[in-house]
Amino acid sequence: MALRITKAVIPAAGLGTRFLPATKAMPKEMLPVVDKPAIQYVVEEAVDAGLTDVLLITGRNKTALENHFDRMTELEATLEEKGDVDRLKKVEYSNDLADVHYVRQGDPRGLGHAVLRAKAHVGNQAFAVLLGDDLIDARDVLLSRMISEAKKRGASVVALLEVDPSVAHLYGVATVEATDVDDVVRITGLVEKPAKGTAPSNLAIIGRYVLQPEVFEVLETTEPGKGNEIQLTDALLTMAEGDIAGGVFGLIFRGRRYDTGDRVDYIKAIVQLAVDREDLGPELRPWLKEFSANLD
Q: Residue ranges of the Nucleotidyl transferase domain (predicted)?
């Protein structure tokens, strides 16, 4: 029987401390990127790849996430009365975007622990994990390719990005060997945020994974690692070294990725996405050129 992959897991329990005070009362996943909250881009990516069963791993003060993907009848009625059809469609779109479920993480014990909270919902199926700090341009193929490779190889697949060696210590970094496909590699080693200057390569894991269900058993016995948290990277290393459930492969992504993980990169992401919009770009691009020309 063909491997079925229908479910996406999106960890969204973080406190968003880098964006305080904006995230004091609002989840960081609800911060707007142009005119949509960051979380909607991620759910749309999952849906575009054929994953319409979405589980959000949440925590305290995250009810805004549930509200966003639910009906808001008063707002919809007001827009309908005004005849504001375009905005009404945008509001209704998120209501029916996916079959969205929620589970609380409780104590923030790391990404591995967050993924483990999805075990009961996912069951014995391969599934995708999407992190909200990385937004992948909808014009570039990533998740659907990862799903295809996972099915083809019967293995777990992570997304890799070639980064400048000077910043490799900020990521989980992979040691790899070539396969029969140019941009697909077999992962032989992984280290989470290596000490500066010690990274084994410049291939960094970014926030997209397609995982075999055996990862849950591995996570249940994975001891806390970097930051005294249960690291998904450590569990994947165990699977790679032990060739568990087909091992772990990496897909090297060379498309457009927008990092919303810190304030400067978040602003860059907004600008990058806005200038390509048909409704915003024509007015924004000449203004940016004039603005940049006057910078010291």
A: 7-272
By DSSP bridging, strand 5-11 and strand 53-58 are parallel
CATH value at residue 215: 3.90.550.10
CB 210 within 8 A of CB 201: no
Is residue 283, in this structure, part of any structural domain at all?
Answer: no
Number of structural domains in the chain: 1
Domain presence at residue 191:
yes
Torsion-angle region of 227 (φ positive above 0: left; ψ -120 to 50: alpha; else: beta): left
Q: How far apart are CA 237 and CA 220, in angstroms?
A: 14
Q: What's phi and psi for 37, nearest 5 deg?
A: -65, 150
Instruction: Please tell me what DSSP assigns to residue 252.
Output: E
Q: Is the dihedral of CA 245, 248, 254, 257 positive or negative?
A: positive
219 within 8 A of 115, measured Cβ to Cβ: yes
Q: Model's pTM, two decimal places?
A: 0.92
Low-confidence ranges of the chain (pLDDT < 70): 1-2
Q: What angle do CA 16, 263, 271 make, to 5 degrees?
A: 125
What is the largest distance, in Å, between two alpha-carbon atoms of the chain?
Answer: 62
> Within 10 Å of residue 267's Cβ, how many Cβ atoms?
11
SS3 59: coil
Looking at the chain, the whole-number percentage of residues with pLDDT higher than 70 is: 99
pLDDT value for 1:
39
Which residues share a beta bridge with 5?
126
Q: Does 275 reside within a domain?
A: no
> What residue numbers bound the domain in which 248 lies?
5-261
Residues 158 and 248 sit within 8 Å (Cβ to Cβ): yes
Q: Where are the alpha helices (DSSP H) in 6-118?
A: 38-48, 63-68, 73-82, 85-95, 111-116
Beta strand 248-252 pairing with 156-162: parallel
Does residue 108 form part of some domain? yes
